[in-house]
Amino acid sequence: MYTDDDLRVLRRAVYFRRMRGLNAPAILDRLRQEGLLNHKSSAPAQEPPSIGPHLRKLRLQRGESLAIVAKAVDVSVGFLSNLERSQSGASIAMLRKLAQYYGLNILDFFGDANASSPLIQPHERRVLPGGEGVRMELLASGKITMEPHLFRVAPGAGSGEQYSHEGEEFLFIVTGQFSISLENREYNLCAGDSFYFNSQTPHRWHNPGKKETTILWINTPPTF
């Protein structure tokens, strides 16, 4: 009744449940990220690329050791080594730290952007990983002054620690629930709510609900 591919998906799902403690929506998100589910939806067909090789290349070009970079961005050498070998992912906050350290935008970690076009269909979107349970889909490319994304945030997933950067941000909650903290104040948002803030204010965020949250997220100037 089941193919070898079916069994491979089931074994991976069992691993995420028993060893990682993920719930069903988070497991589905991880399986999709790994390209194990052949499903038809409005989501893009592209899968997030790994930034590990690019990070390693940047570090070696500067002639720096893992220990130097790890200390600068306040992570362990083991974590940075796993990240460079594509054995672990990085949260939005960590990607921001690494981008600031190397003098880049987060999008630079994923190669050159596609040529500018006024129309981007779902299957053409660039997909960027934002850590466990966070998927970012770029809605425009090229020489742009506003950078719109569609964020898909699994239950319990979030940005990690606080981070800040230049610019301003606008959020519109399409589906689900969303919690965002600016310094010491927390805001709880739900579908239909919008939110605007200065990116220099330290912020962190997560999905407190039991279903995936979808957000139209716009940065200006482009920061990813």
Q: How would the blueprint of this fold be written?
A:
Blueprint: H1 4-18, H2 24-33, H3 52-61, H4 66-73, H5 77-84, H6 92-102, E1 126-129, E2 134-138, E3 147-153, E4 168-175, E5 177-182, E6 185-190, E7 194-198, E8 203-206, E9 213-220
Antiparallel strand pairs: 1-2, 2-3, 3-9, 4-7, 4-9, 5-6, 5-8
Helix pairs in contact: 1-2, 4-5
Shape: globular
Along the chain, the helix and strand elements come as: HHHHHHEEEEEEEEE
Q: How many discrete structural domains?
A: 2
Residue share in helix: 25-40%
CATH class of the largest domain: Mainly Beta
CATH topology of the largest domain: Jelly Rolls
The overall strand count is 9
Strand order across the largest sheet: 1-2-3-9-4-7
Question: Helical segment tally?
Answer: 6
Helix/sheet category: alpha+beta
Query: What's the architecture of the largest domain, going by CATH?
Result: Sandwich
Give the distance, in angstroms, between the N- and C-terminal Cα atoms.
45 Å
Catalogue the unreliable spans.
Answer: 39-45
Q: In CATH, what is the homologous superfamily of the largest domain? A: Jelly Rolls
Instruction: Give the oligomer, counting copies of the same chain as homo and different chains as hetero.
Output: single chain
Q: Averaging pLDDT over every residue, what do you get?
A: 85
> Compute the gyration radius: what is it?
18 Å
Beta-strand percentage? 15-25%
Question: Your description of this structure?
Answer:
This protein is an alpha+beta fold and 224 residues long. It folds into two domains: 4-33; 40-224, Sandwich (Jelly Rolls). The protein is built from six helices and nine strands, in the order H-H-H-H-H-H-E-E-E-E-E-E-E-E-E. It has helices at 4-18, 24-33, 52-61, 66-73, 77-84, 92-102, and strands spanning 126-129, 134-138, 147-153, 168-175, 177-182, 185-190, 194-198, 203-206, 213-220. The chain starts with a helix and ends with a strand.
